[in-house]
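Format notes (please read before filing issues)

Several people have asked whether sequences and structure tokens are stored in separate files. They are not. Every record keeps both together, in the order shown below: the sequence lines, then the token lines. Line labels are part of the format and must not be stripped during preprocessing.
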Amino acid sequence: MKKFTLELFIKIIGISAASGIGYQNEVIHLISDSADVLYEYHIKTEKLSKTALNESGKIAENLSKVGKSDFEAMTSDGSNYYIFGSGSGALRNTLIEINQESKEVISINDLSVLYESMKSFAGIDDKNFNIEGVSFYQDKWYFLNRGNGPQQQNGLFTITGDNLLESFNIVYNPIKLPKIDGVQAGFTDACVVDGQLYFLAAAEDSGSTYLDGAVKGSLIGRIDLQKMKVKSTKIISKTHKFEGLTHYSQDKNGLSFLLCEDADSDTKQADIYKIILK
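Then the structure lines:
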């Protein structure tokens, strides 16, 4: 991961605070940590559509910190998307299952039992628990806790079992990440490619899972899922806070991902970047 190229891929008007991204067949899906919405953007037609992610079926955007679901992570099993609240507050424990093609909301569930079990198992208290990345791969769920709380507890949960609501097994591995300009980087998203967990981490000078801080930059890295060890990291920006990562392509030039940025502003524009790891 010594060489990479990072470039602006596309700008999507009408989306604020993008926090998770998915890509398939020239279609980009996005979630926002300030909206109960799944956004669908067709690259060729430049068409943007929205699906409500709540019981009411109504589009809810620009939500306050107090009232938002704080959707921070999205993953796919090939047929459905699974969208997760961060668990960093009482109202942030929601799991949405939605069909990738039809956009039919299949189920809305409460993850409180799972999240409380994860905290207890790993010794992480409420002020330090903040799930910002989830990746599903070979019947395992990989949850990344962002170490932006007071104890800076970056960690990787591996969840197996019949379901995520009441029948599951937990393995936890604390993960040490580097600092950027003296500020601890914390996980913001991840996806698995060929058995390797590629992740994003951002450094934000806050010390809180709830409050935003000054952005010091972002890095990309890779974890060997067999050894649960960080194999490499690379700072890719000193100014951007990248929060979403999805696999885009792989060829002789390298491995490509799409990234989305959360600018921590009310600007209704999502900047999507492409990174190629040589």
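For reference, the curators noted about this record: The chain has a mean pLDDT of 95. The longest helix spans residues 112-122.
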